Amino acid sequence: MALKVQGQVAIITGASSGIGRASALQLAEAGFQVALGARNLDKLAGVAAEIKEATGHEPFLMQIDVRHHDQVKDFVAAVKHHFGRIDLLLNNAGLAKGTTPLVEETDVSNWDAMLDTNVRGLLLMTREAVPHMIEGGNGHVINLGSIAGREAYAGGGVYCASKFAVRAITEALRHELLGKPVRITTVDPGMVETDFSVVRLGDQEKADAVYAGMTPLTAEDIADCVTWAATRPKHVNIDAIIVKPLDQSGAGKVARR
């Protein structure tokens, strides 16, 4: 049995592409009113147009960099003012930069980008949104983690650390909100073909090689998981979803043809 979500409001960060875009579309089609946040306003407007065409409803959108607390506060306040409520937060904004071993890294700005976005940004969004959920008597935080938050690998030390942190924050939050009307979920994907590897490696050809000879997950596959968790009955909390392509058994363990 699915939860009837008509009228409920979902905030999606990193909604301009990839998993964020796919999740925004699927959540809107499931009945959520959606608020979209991302750094690229032009792409965000394109996603909003897709949602309006598919559902007839106008999403709320706002340019935001989740690393900046003032922008986060303004975004959440604007969503609450626009819709009058906040029921779901999908902390999707995140990235990986580089694969240089820790002791060989010369550009530590990559570390800052990953930690500030993947960890601090998630914390800031959660801090601002959850009180509105408690006040409204209904809420759900879904954090986009990774199997990198469960299994570290060479060349991914800081990215893995950020996703281990996401898992720790998710579990701590579940304990802290026990007795409150807020569900807490993490969705931890394996290899998903989006622009993730292009951002990480800085080159389309290198990114294509990551998925060569195997069938990766798609953004829509992960959006399916997000939407399924979000539409369970209110008394059902999906703690974690770990999802990998059939061709992957773990980090760096891939069957290629």
From TrEMBL:
UniProt KW keywords: Oxidoreductase
Q: Does the keyword Nucleotide-binding apply?
A: no
Which InterPro entries does the entry link to? NAD(P)-bd_dom_sf, Sc_DH/Rdtase_CS, SDR_fam
> What does the similarity note say?
Belongs to the short-chain dehydrogenases/reductases (SDR) family.
Q: Do you know which PANTHER family this protein is assigned to? A: ALCOHOL DEHYDROGENASE
Q: From the Swiss-Prot or TrEMBL record, give the protein name.
A: SDR family NAD(P)-dependent oxidoreductase
